[in-house]
Amino acid sequence: MRSPRETVCAGSQIGGCLEPPVKLLDVRPQYPARQRQAGVSAEVNLEGRIGADGFMKDLHLAASVAGDFASAALDAASAWRFAPTRLGGVPIETPIRITFEFQAN
Question: Going from the N-terminus, what domains does the chain have, and what CATH number goes with each?
């Protein structure tokens, strides 16, 4: 019996089979208490890579944002884990862009 990943690529003939990453661990950021109390909202955009080992690599801010929000977003996304992207069955690094929205109530 084939695994779900093998089935996805069974008909691939050109350029090898590209299997997308699968998130195994999703950690949500903690809203900074001071910012929540002040009613401040923010959007944090991050860029980095999903490593061939499934861990986040070179994660950084894509645009400037208040430090409390940046720290919360970086801490959360750094903890994410993936089954990595595979090309022809071989794990490869993949760029990733992440957006977190902090909405004050």
Answer: 4-102 (3.30.2420.10)
